[in-house]
Structure formats: structure tokens, C-alpha cells
Amino acid sequence: MPLLRKIALMFLLVLFVASWTGVYAAPDAVPEAKPVISLPKITSEKAVESRGISRQLELSQVRWANHTEALTGTAMMRLVMDVSGPVEASGVVIAGPTPRLSVTIKGTTPGKAIEDLTFDGKVIEKVSFDVSGQDTKVTFDLPLMVEDTDYRVFTLPSDAKANKPFRVVVDVNKPVPMPDFSFTTGLKNKVIAIDPGHGGSDPGAIGPSQYQEKTATLAVAQNVRTLLEKAGARVIMTRQDDRDVYGPNASAVDELKARSTAANSRKADVFLSIHMNAFPDRTVGGTSTYYYQKTKYDSMLARALQTSLIEAGKLQDRRTNPANFYVIKRTQMPAALIELAFISNPDEEKLLSSPDFQQKMSLGIVRGLERFFDQAAKLN
User: Fold this and answer.
1) Does 2.60.40.3500 match the CATH number of domain 57-173?
2) Please, which residues have CB within 8 angstroms of residue 363's CB and are 6 or more apart in sequence?
3) For each of the chain's 380 residues, which pLDDT tens digit applies?
4) 3-state secondary structure of 43
5) Is the separation of the CB atoms in 339 and 309 below 8 Å?
6) Domain residues of the chain, as ranges?
7) Which of 13, 68, 71, 95 has the lowest CB atom count within 10 Å?
């Protein structure tokens, strides 16, 4: 091969190697290959459910009827809600401001045909449907409080053969009739149960100066008893001195049950439990009254007492509040639990230990009871 031709071939070989090495050394210079068309991924409905991806389902129809449980004979109202697919549902009882059953149906929204419902109030007063985030909130307004055993929330699967969709069912038992209250005005001949809170081995709350709640509640209760008996009422005291009502070192349930039983067994017209409040922040003070709406009179009794106590003691009005306290829940008559003042507040502790203030609040209680009977008689 001629020399010049060999030199030319070697030169071309060097250029080729240099060019290839440059491409290898700078990969960023090579554009990334992309498909011409980007196709969407297809996810099956089962895959959506298995991956936990939420789907918004719809409440499509609501039906209701009075129903009697075949096994127990319990009368109830049944509400059935059709849903476009399987869901979870749960309920909880709310005491205030009025008795309610709140049912949450997860991952649903009310359909356009769903409207609030109004009933006669014998079992349910009203049912309302609201959206809460991704859920439907169904609120049952009740005439009286119910126990956890008085309602049931459950679901039923769809039935293609019977042409039935997935359903959420809510059963609410008809309240057990309470004694027939027919109140008259005045305090004369009324049977009133007074419950001085704590006592004996249970001192209750203790103030900054070591004044004990059980001492204050008994002093006020004894004053109230004297005033009521002068007005012609008959008074039942759950304790008349510094002792445990059930017995020393009794369980809390036994102790509380003994207090409510004392009123129930002697058929009191009303029940009043006297207490003092306490809070870590010693600046907090005031008077409050609690009730459990098991009759149509419980909240009325609480409001009458609270109004008269504020007039008598001039402390901060902490209002009436619904509560699930045992003694006002388990008594069969209208009942209230009052917190006269905060024994944890140094100024109010001093007042609570004062015979003058004790007498003022005792008068407030008696005036509140008289106010209640006057209002209840008008309601009758």
C-alpha cells in the first residue's frame, strides 16, 4: 500500500476514535428518548378498593317506620337509609344542648332528594342531614336522653335478587314512661331529696386553706332542710352528718347508687345534689348547675335553681349545663346538681366557709325550688 494512502487511513481512524470517545464522555448531550403518545393507566374498581382509594358514595333514599323487636318486644322507630355502596356507620349520644344521637356515615354525601325530617316527638323529634368533611352526619333530636343500649346503628348488604341496595339502619327505642308528674305551685307537701355531696372517707375537693367540700355541702344542705320544712315540705337527706352514704371504703358506684336509691325508693318529687367546684387555675370561680334530660322537667329545674343562686350569691354565672352524672341520671324524678362556687379559688373558699354566705346560698336554693314548682305547674 502506498505510504500516503496508509497515512490517510490512520488519520481517519484517529478522528473516529476521538469522536466516539467524546460522545461517551458527555452522556448529558444525548437527548432522552420519549414515547410519542402517553397512555393513561387503567385502574379497575377492585384495584381502587384494594388500594384504599376513597370513593364518595351517595345516600339516595330514607324510609322510616315504627317497629317492635320480635325477641324483646321493645317498641322503637327504625330509620333505613339506602346507600350506593358499602360504607361504615357509627353513632354516639350527645347530652347537650339538647339530647341527640349523632350518626356518622363515612365516605358519603346526601343525595338531592334527602331532606330533614320532623316527627311527633314520642321517640324522635327531628332528623337532619349534614355534610362533615367526606362524611354524612345524621343528627337525631330526641325528647329525652337515651342509654347506649337504647339505640343501634348497623348496616345491611345489598341484595340483587330482592332489588335492595346497601343500607344503613338506625333503631331508637321508645323511652320507658317515667312517673306521671303533676306539679302544683308552692313548696307545701312536696317531697324533696337533698344530697350533700361526698362525706365520711371522701372529703371531696379541698381548698387552699384546707377547707373541705364535704363540710360545706353538709352545712348548706342542713340549712336548706330547715327552710324547706318551715315551708311545709318533707325532706329526704342522703346523709345528715359526716359519713359515707353506702359505707366506709365503698366503691364509687355503690356510693352513688345509694344516693339515687334513697330518692327513688321514697318517691321524691325532685332530687338536688349539692357540690363545690374546683380547678387548677385558682382564679376561676362562679356558680353552675347541671342536669340530665331524662324528663321534660330536668332542664327547667336546673334553670330555676341557677337563676336564684346567681341572684343570691352574686358570683359569676357559669350557666346550666347538660351532664352525665350518675346521681342525676339514675334518679327517677327531675334532678339537678349544683356547684355553688369554686373551693379552689381562695376568695370563694373563704365565702363557702362563711355561715352568712352558706345561708344566702341556702335561701337561693329554696327560692329556686319554689320557682321551679311554679313554672312546672303552669306547664301542666
Assistant:
1) yes
2) 227, 312
3) 555 555 555 554 444 444 434 433 333 343 444 444 444 444 444 444 444 445 689 999 999 998 887 777 788 999 999 999 999 999 999 877 778 999 999 999 999 999 999 999 889 999 999 999 999 999 999 988 888 889 999 999 999 999 999 999 999 998 877 777 889 999 999 999 999 999 999 999 999 999 999 999 999 999 999 999 999 999 999 999 999 998 877 788 889 999 999 999 999 999 999 999 999 999 999 999 999 999 989 999 999 999 999 999 999 999 999 998 999 999 999 999 999 999 999 999 999 999 999 999 999 999 999 999 999 999 87
4) coil
5) no
6) 57-173, 191-379
7) 71
Grid coordinates representing 321 are 349545663
341's grid cell? 362556687
142 residue type, one letter: L
Supply 314's cell numbers: 352574686
Q: Cell 321508645 belongs to which residue?
A: 174
- List, by residue number, the catalytic residues: 339
Distances in whole angstroms, Cα of residue 187 to Cα of each of 28, 121, 212, 294, 333: 97, 31, 31, 23, 16
Q: Which CATH architecture has domain 191-379?
A: 3-Layer(aba) Sandwich (3.40)
SS3 326: helix
Q: How far, in Å, CA of 21 to CA of 86, rounded? A: 63
Beta bridge partners of 212: 206
Q: How many CB atoms lie within 10 A of CB 168?
A: 23
